[in-house]
C-alpha cells in the first residue's frame, strides 16, 4: 500500500516541493490582466480557508516533501492578521522558505511585522515606473505607496527583493529601461513576466505578449549587455541575468514563448481551498470539503496525491487544444 505521505511525484517524474497559497481573492487595485475593473464578486468570508485550515494543509504537504511556501492573492496584505499566518507557517516542520507576492500598497505598514513573523522573501508587483502607465494598468492610484513599500521592506532587512513586471506589447515597452535602471540603482531584481491568458475580461490576445527576448534586446540597447547567471534550481520559473558591470539583476519568466513546464515543482491552493496542479488547470480538488467534513490528514494527503498524479505535461497555451481556465488570476492565486 502506498504511503500517503510519500514524496509528491507526478506521472512525468516531477517532484513537487513548492506550494502557492492564495489567502484571499480580494485586492485593493484592479490590474486588467488579473481582475475586472468594477463589480467584482468576492467570496464570502465563511468560504475562505481559516488560518488554522491553511496551517493544517501546509503541515500535511510538508510531510510529503513540500518545503517552500508562497503566499499570494488577490492581494494577501488585505487579509487581516497576515503576519499571524506567517508566524504559524514558520513553525511547520519541514518548511524552510516562506515568500510573499504583494502589490506593495500596504507593505510600508506591514513590512516590519512580516519580517518579525518569519517571512523570508518578497516579490512586489510593479509593472511601470511612470505613474500614468501604472494607473492605466492598475485602474487605481497608489504608485507612490508601492515605492514606499519597497524601500520600507529594504529598511527592515528584506534582501534580494524581486520586482514582478508584467510585460504587455504596446503598453510597457517604454518601462523596460527605467525598470532595469531601477534594479541597478536600488539593488533589486526585476523579473519581466510575459502577459498570460488569465485576465478576467477574456481579452487576452497572443499579439499582446511582449516576449522575453525582445525585452532583453531593449535592455541591452538601452543600458548594458546582460550576462547569464547559473540556474541553481532547475524548477525556478525565471532565467536570470546580471548587467555586464555586475549592477542589477534581471529575470525573464516566459511562459508563453518559452514554457518551463518540464521542470515545474509547484502546486497551488486557492483561497477557498481548491487544489490545482497548474496555473492553467481546468480541474480542481476540494481540500476544504475534506477538512470541513472531518477527513483525516491521510485523506487530505491522498487528495493532494490525486491532484499531482493528474498533472499534464504542460499548460499547452500555444496548442490548438488549449482551454482557458474559467477563473481569472485573482480567483486562482498569482
Would you give an account of this structure?
- With 334 residues, the chain is of the alpha/beta class.
- It has a single domain (18-332), classed as TIM Barrel.
- The chain contains ten helices and twelve strands.
- A twelve-stranded mixed sheet has the order 7-8-9-6-5-4-3-2-1-10-11-12.
- Strand 10 and strand 11 form a beta hairpin.
- Helix 1 (51-63) crosses helix 9 and helix 2 (82-90) runs parallel beside helix 3.
- It is globular, with a radius of gyration of 19 Å.
- It starts with 17 loop residues before the first strand and ends with a helix.
- The model has no long low-confidence stretch (mean pLDDT 93).
Task: Characterize this entry briefly.
The chain has a single domain (18-332), classed as TIM Barrel, CATH 3.20.20.
Q: Helix tally?
A: 10
Helix/strand order: EHEHEHEHHEHEHEEEEEEHHH
Sheet-strand content, in percent, reads 15-25%
Low-confidence stretches: none
The end-to-end distance, rounded to whole angstroms, is: 36 Å
Strand order of the largest sheet: 7-8-9-6-5-4-3-2-1-10-11-12
Predict the CATH topology: TIM Barrel
Top keywords for this entry?
334 residues; alpha/beta; TIM Barrel; 12-stranded mixed beta sheet; 10 helices; 16% strand
SSE blueprint and pairings:
Blueprint lengths: L17 E5 L28 H13 L4 E5 L9 H9 L6 E6 L4 H11 L3 E5 L5 H8 L4 H13 L6 E6 L8 H11 L2 E6 L17 H11 L3 E3 L10 E5 L5 E5 L12 E4 L4 E3 L8 E2 H6 L4 H13 L19 H4 L2
Parallel strand pairs: 1-2, 1-10, 2-3, 3-4, 4-5, 5-6, 6-9
Antiparallel strand pairs: 7-8, 8-9, 10-11, 11-12
Amino acid at each position: 500500500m502506498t504511503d500517503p505521505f510519500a514524496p509528491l511525484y507526478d506521472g512525468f517524474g516531477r517532484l513537487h516541493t513548492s506550494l502557492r497559497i492564495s489567502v484571499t481573492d480580494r485586492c485593493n487595485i484592479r490590474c486588467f490582466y488579473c481582475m475586472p475593473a468594477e463589480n467584482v464578486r468576492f467570496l464570502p468570508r465563511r468560504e475562505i480557508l481559516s488560518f488554522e485550515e491553511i496551517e493544517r494543509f501546509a503541515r500535511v504537504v510538508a510531510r510529503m516533501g513540500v518545503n517552500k511556501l508562497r503566499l499570494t492573492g488577490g492581494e494577501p496584505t488585505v487579509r487581516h492578521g497576515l503576519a499571524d499566518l506567517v508566524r504559524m507557517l514558520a513553525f511547520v516542520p519541514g518548511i524552510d522558505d516562506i515568500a510573499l507576492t504583494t502589490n506593495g500598497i500596504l507593505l510600508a505598514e506591514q513590512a516590519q511585522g512580516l519580517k518579525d513573523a518569519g517571512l523570508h522573501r518578497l516579490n512586489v508587483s510593479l509593472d511601470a515606473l511612470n505613474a500614468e502607465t501604472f494607473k492605466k494598468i492598475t485602474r487605481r492610484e497608489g504608485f507612490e505607496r508601492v515605492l514606499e513599500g519597497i524601500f520600507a521592506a529594504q529598511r527592515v532587512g528584506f534582501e534580494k527583493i524581486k520586482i514582478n513586471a508584467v510585460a504587455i506589447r504596446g503598453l510597457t515597452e517604454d518601462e523596460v529601461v527605467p525598470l532595469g535602471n531601477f534594479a541597478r540603482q536600488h539593488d533589486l531584481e526585476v523579473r519581466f513576466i510575459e502577459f498570460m491568458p488569465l485576465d478576467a475580461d477574456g481579452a487576452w490576445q497572443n499579439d499582446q505578449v511582449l516576449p522575453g527576448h525582445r525585452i532583453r534586446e531593449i535592455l541591452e540597447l538601452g543600458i548594458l549587455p546582460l550576462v547569464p547567471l547559473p540556474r541553481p534550481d532547475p524548477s525556478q520559473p525565471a532565467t536570470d541575468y546580471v548587467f555586464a558591470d555586475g549592477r542589477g539583476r534581471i529575470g525573464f519568466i516566459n511562459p508563453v514563448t518559452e514554457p518551463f513546464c518540464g521542470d515545474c515543482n509547484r502546486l497551488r491552493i486557492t483561497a477557498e481551498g481548491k487544489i490545482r496542479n497548474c496555473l492553467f488547470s481546468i480541474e480542481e480538488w476540494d481540500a476544504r470539503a475534506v477538512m470541513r467534513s472531518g477527513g483525516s490528514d491521510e485523506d487530505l494527503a491522498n487528495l493532494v496525491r490525486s491532484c499531482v498524479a493528474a498533472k499534464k505535461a504542460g499548460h499547452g497555451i500555444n496548442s490548438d487544444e488549449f482551454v482557458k481556465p474559467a477563473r481569472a488570476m485573482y480567483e486562482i492565486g498569482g
